[in-house]
Description:
The complex is a heterodimer of chains A (108) and B (882).
Chain A: H1 2-21, E1 24-25, H2 26-36, H3 45-58, E2 61-67, E3 73-79, H4 81-106
Antiparallel strand pairs in A: 1-3, 2-3
Chain B: H1 2-11, H2 13-37, H3 42-53, H4 56-67, H5 70-88, H6 90-119, E1 130-136, H7 148-157, E2 161-168, E3 178-183, E4 186-195, H8 199-203, E5 207-210, E6 225-228, H9 230-237, E7 247-250, E8 253-261, E9 273-276, H10 282-286, E10 294-299, H11 305-322, H12 324-327, E11 331-336, H13 337-342, H14 345-377, H15 379-387, H16 392-430, H17 437-441, H18 447-471, H19 476-480, H20 488-525, E12 535-541, H21 552-567, E13 571-577, E14 588-590, E15 592-593, E16 606-612, H22 616-620, E17 624-627, H23 632-636, E18 642-645, H24 646-652, E19 662-665, E20 673-681, E21 696-700, E22 705-712, H25 720-730, E23 737-741, H26 742-749, H27 751-785, H28 787-795, H29 800-832, H30 845-871, H31 875-880
Parallel strand pairs in B: 4-9, 6-8, 16-21, 18-20
Antiparallel strand pairs in B: 1-10, 1-11, 2-4, 2-10, 3-4, 3-7, 5-8, 6-9, 7-8, 12-22, 12-23, 13-22, 14-16, 15-19, 17-20, 18-21, 19-20
Helix pairs in contact in B: 2-3, 2-4, 5-16, 6-14, 6-16, 6-18, 14-18, 14-20, 14-27, 16-18, 20-27, 20-29, 20-30, 21-25, 27-28, 27-29, 27-30, 29-30
Amino acid sequence: MARNDLLGSLGFLVLKTLSQAGPLHGYGIVLHIQRASDELLRVEEGSLYPALHRMEQSGWISSEWTLTETNRKAKYYKLTALGKKELQAAEKSFEQLVKGVQAMLRYA
Amino acid sequence: MSLVHRILNLFSHSNVDREIEAELRSHVEMRTADNVASGMSAGAARRDALLRFGNPTVMKERIFAVDAALTLKSIGMDLRYAFRRLTKSPGFTVTTVLTFALGIGATTAIFSAAYALLLRSLPFQHADRIIGVYETHPQIVGGAEVNFLDYQDWLRQQTSFEQMAAYSVAGSEAGSDTMSLVMGDHGEQVRAVLASSNLFSLLGVSPLMGRTFVEQDDTPNANHVVVLSAEAWQRYFGGDHGILGRTIDLNGVSFTVIGVLRPGAAYPATGEFWMPLSLMDKESQTRRVGHTLDVLGRLKPGVDLAEARADMQTIAARLAQAYPATNRNIGVLLTPLREQLVRSLRPAILTLLGCVVLVLCIACANVANLLVVRSAAHARETAVRQALGASRLRLLSQYFSETLILCLLGGLLGTGFAALTLPLLRVAFAHTAGADPSLIQSVELNLPVLLVAAGVCLSTAFFFALLPTRKRQNGLADSLRPSDRSGTGRRSWSSRALISTEIAIAIVVLFLGSLLIRSFQKLIRVDPGFRTDHLLSIEITLPQPRYQYGTPATNHFYERLIDKLTQSPGIVSAGTTIALPFQASHAMTRFLIAGEPARAPGALPMEQIREVSPEFFQAMGLGLEQGRVFERKDVENSSNLIIVNQAFARRYLSGKNPLTSSILMNVLSPHPEKMPVIGVVSNAHDLGVGTEAEPVLYFPGFDVHAVLLIRTNIDPMSVVSEVRKAVRDLDPTQPIYHVETIDEVLSDSLARQRMVAVLLGIFALFALTLAAIGIYGVVAYSVTQRTREIGVRMAVGSSRANILLLMLRDAASFTGIGVLAGLVAAFAGAHLASTLLFRISSADPISICISVSALLIVAMLAAVVPASRAASINPVEALRAE
């Protein structure tokens, strides 16, 4: 739980996105989360960048300036080895959380 | 790593900023492009993109906060802001910094002395287990040296010590701790120590070159070997590296140099040449009469001082049984090495340290008061900032940076003061006979001392920073209300309590200061029994074996010298004795008054003896009360005659005619000698002016070592060249040494008392000044706070005198409380310092009067200045002020 808290659900989603879709810039991450969640999850753009920078400071992701398909300069974020480990741990504890909550819901 | 990165980012602020901006811009542009692609107009597309994003500046700030260690930046800002605020009120800043510097400076200086003398580890192995062992006798104050045979018995019987070692600074000749080192055509008097072979291994001292003693060196027929101190090696041999194996001539005997000690490792610290103990004179080694040894023991691990004391006492009791004649009254005294090195300085230093901490407390209380007053002035500003959302931590950090600057500036300045006063303090300690010179050298500003000073600065800064933030609790609204008066009552109550405490502490310091100054005055007013001015002392040790005790050669040398000197202009008279005035002769003898019943073994009285020339009494200026003084023929005939002083006559010859009495000497030998008393002279305070005049037995004679006393009618130091010439005329290679006026000897003998009195006097002045500043501050603040009230009072008819009284009554109440509390504490404190007092009670009424009246006068002056300002307030202006 504790690690999950530290990461936060936005961070969790960002890490998952980067592991599924490979290197992406901030705007791409917003679009991916929206698309992959069938428009159910919408990322607050104001919170995204502080979260990205925080994760970069923690060494979970790294960044690089490259050109987009439309020839625009953008900052691309990439999962690091440390970030992969963090993501695995987060997934595990998230699954436990879900299982636990489901069990609570079934309890009558 | 990330922290380092974030700190680095602080310095490349604009780069980081530009990158964040570019990233955000690219996001907005991509969104706009997508919006346009999905059919929006260019303007609407951009607006939508920006709207989704929120305030870009706030966002940038938030991201930057993630990327850089902003807290550090805010601390930097706080420090700069605090610095600006402080330079805006220079009066407050200077007062605070100086007050604090005074407290820290005095504390640092005294603490460095306390650290060097009481805390710092000694340069010896297991120094905490090294114990000095002495013998005691009811008629000797403190511990005395140990008899050689007793020491041998201790070695065999004791079970508490790993090792026991002995040394003797008495040289091979009683009364002299020097030997003559002859090098080529000139001679030098050097300080010699006879040491048992294990002295250096007990202390854990290893040599710089060569070796120290081994057991074979300390056997009667061994080769004559000598170990040098590093200082002696430099001074007499210029640091010659070929010194090992060289033969040197000491008192006419050749010794082979086998080793040189490391600098600072000399023990005793004054020693220069160490020789095996077996070279001590046969008389001392074979009789239980002479006491010549200093004994050290290193406790076995796990054995404590009390067990060792019990062990040694058992042995002493056994020896008393076996040798009642000599050992009946002999006990033992065990003193840890550090005690032995520090001796009488410990209570002095502890008292000084106590007082200096009190002065620091007053300084802190003053600074605290100033800060509280200042924070009251800034109360509204703080409240506004709090209302706008500044966190308590943020405010605390700001106060902390302000007090930190004040305390650090004060601390730096104070350490500077301390550094300036330390040389003076070292000189003062060096003149104090009580302490070992090796310890005095280490009175310095070293790392531990500086760390303690820095620790005091930081903790006081933190404590002060908490003061104003604590005050904030009585509600934001109150502070924000215009013309705030509500907090005044409580705030001034706490600063009054603070000022009362300050006054109480000042009374304690003042009382102790005046007690010790008065005690010192009594000490210097003691009549030493002779005139100390225009009296010069010079020591001479004639080289052996050419000169011996009581031989015609020795007698003639001194007689001719005295004759030569008395013919010189400016010299009134000259005589010799064996020890400086104000110093024990280190020669004592057992005796019996002839005709008195024989005493039980061990119950024989024991008193000091001094061998003097016939001219001694005239040179000293001791009055002849009865009979006659010695004559030259008494010396030459080795007549067994005695002169005693009045103290002796009173104690042992009361009710008798001294001139018809005789004294039995050598009472422990089978053939006691009966010696008639031929004269009684007045008393001299031979053991220092702090002790009563003790009984003394004077014998006629000259020893190879002599203290020459010269009475002059001109400046005594101006005859030294005359004396040197006279000595050289008699023997061209003969050196003289220890040239000192008796006024200097007297002054040195009081150095400790003078130092304590002077320092406490200074601290008392500090305390008084600081208390005055504090009182002035509180009254002045209360005047500004009550300006309106005073205006109203005057408007309704109060006279200026009434206003003055109103303000003074206030000051009188907290001063009165402080003085009363201070007196109670002062009595308790003075009781602890009573060992430092001389002929003065620790509740001395005059000291009480002095300290209380000094404080009251200063308090009144400090209060009258701001109070009279209150009385001269123009009521119209005061009422219009708000």
